[in-house]
Amino acid sequence: MARRAATNATEVLGGPVDRVTFHNSENGFCVLRVKARGQRDLITVIGHAAMISAGEFVQASGAWVNDRTHGVQFRASFLKATAPTTVEGIEKYLGSGMIRGIGPVYAKKLVRAFGESVFDIIEQEPSRLREVTGIGPKRAERITAGWADQKVIRDHAVSAQQRRRHVARGAHLQNLRR
Questions:
Q1: At residue 166, does pLDDT exceed 80?
Q2: Ranges assigned E (strand) in the chain
């Protein structure tokens, strides 16, 4: 195994999410497969994120642990996801099914047509979506509505997770005072 044995030393890693193996939308717990810089194979990252999708770029700090059942994993105490910036990441992100009207086929077509500026096109010039073969007025409307819905859902999920963290931290501090 190329990875070092489980340690308690805090490390920082980053890379694109290849697959979301599990995500609990109520508490944000997630199991991710990530192509981390400096690692030959995909690694398993466990942590908490309000929302996460394949293709997004994650930055994590935490430690390697050796789980009796699942083997070596990176347990993230901090996990931050950002929109992908590479053409491959954007295609995977759009093709993940999270936006109505876009699956793997249309993700490939959109990225081929607009490259890294596809997110800007969807938000600021949605009429240009019709330049892509197979996208008519109805699909273009579905894509822009799906994009807007995802933005609202993501914003709500992030703020809800932050509120839960503040409540949990407050309860923890109160228990310490007792």
A1: no
A2: 11-23, 29-34, 43-48, 57-67, 71-82
